[in-house]
Amino acid sequence: MAITLSQSALDQMPGEVGVPTYDRAALRPGILHVGIGNFHRAHMGWYLDQLFEQGAGHDWALIGAGVRPGDAAMRDRLAAQDWLTTVVELDPEGLSARVIGAMVDFVPVDPAAVIAAMADPAIRIVSLTITEGGYYVDAKTDGFDAAHPDMAHDAANPDAPHGVFGMILAALRQRRAAGHAPFTVMSCDNLPENGHVCARTVIGLARIADPDLAEWIAATVAFPNSMVDCITPATSDRERALVADRFGITDAAPVVCEPYRQWVLEDNFPQGRPPLEKVGAQFVTDVGKYELMKLRILNGGHAAIAYPSALLGHHFVHDAMADPQIEAWLRALETREVIPTLKPIEGVDYADYLELIVSRFANPEIGDTIQRLCLDGSNRQPKFILPTLADALKEGRDIDGLAQEVAFWCRYCERTDEAGNAIAPNDDNSESLREHALASRGDPLAFLQNRTVFGGLADDPRFQEAFARKLKLVQDQGVRAAIATYLG
């Protein structure tokens, strides 16, 4: 019989399962995290649990928070098991499990409750995992999208905001009025210069809601950049059954992840921070180079294999990587066009990093799906592919492979694979993307007219020519012919 996860059941766990040996009741909260998903628990939650296990940082425990209706369901699942999570590392050499206990509370999913928790001076860091598309970036200007209805609402209703940035402003306003120091705001999302992007959104909203507060935030609130990395698939019945059958634990919200993590942070925390360097995090002066390496090679690599693999009918990422053409396509694109856009990092060999990425993608234990990699392309392409393309164009480099990746995405947006099977919508802009993709059958450049995604790149004649040529190839001859042409 599997043991239902709870604090009282920790001493009943199988001997092979790691459990907290620190006193969770003695932990004091110092971080409020918005977005308690799988990645956060496999990454920040894991690092803090490791730190607490060493006897350090016990005043930096986590409080969870959410702003979407779906977050309430996660709160209910975690509340029933005393905020504990089983993290299973999917190492091909042998699976391992640990129950992590860094979270001590999860505030009700209610704006007033979230604001009150942020306003508590014990909270010195507010961290975010809200997806790459959650920062209200205007694709045309790459600046803050002040006209977005969500931002207009929160600017007009500063005491009753709907979104996390409005809640941050309300809490900072309260702390300022009470004479308390502001918390640090730390983005943990996959964005270039995520701290700067986060600052731009918070200060941009403040400027239309409360200009005086905006100036105070700009002068006193820190927004450190960070690079985060750990491949973490979605949890389904498959993963819950794995935890129950393999480790004897009934966990309503387990997390499975690869046995690899990286966290590189800018050391800019005026109100203090946990000593995460004790457990492998890196604190550096300039995170930007590390961010760019990961976003372009890993996240861009995911995008590169996602769409051709989906069109060929691959389900799991490791199955796609076992397809010699897909692996060769990934290696060629990264080596020829992606890595040349990166500046050197002392002590880092990009060829070695690429080999690490290839091995991570090929890990059969992870069970990551091509469907997950294809999610939200209209937000991910402008973050992971198009900036590389823009730099390659600016530097006069080859762009055939990058144009081919966009062509694969266009063909995918038609929502049928090469065998004629339907592809379910998986993007908030699915209908618009499909219309543009189908129109490109008659006019190849129709897809590029989606200005929300492509901005000024749509007008670049080199990109137009390469995209039209590559799209016709994949439309007329299929994915394998397109890859073979590029490899040849």
Automatic annotation (TrEMBL):
It is an enzyme of class 1 (oxidoreductase). Residues 30-278 form the Mannitol dehydrogenase N-terminal domain. Residues 286-473 form the Mannitol dehydrogenase C-terminal domain. Keywords: Oxidoreductase. Pfam families: Mannitol_dh, Mannitol_dh_C. The keyword Oxidoreductase applies. It comes from the Bacteria. One of its GO terms (molecular function) is oxidoreductase activity. Coiled coil: none annotated. Its EC number is 1.1.1.-. This is Mannitol dehydrogenase family protein. It comes from Paracoccus spongiarum. The lineage of its organism: Bacteria, Pseudomonadati, Pseudomonadota, Alphaproteobacteria, Rhodobacterales.
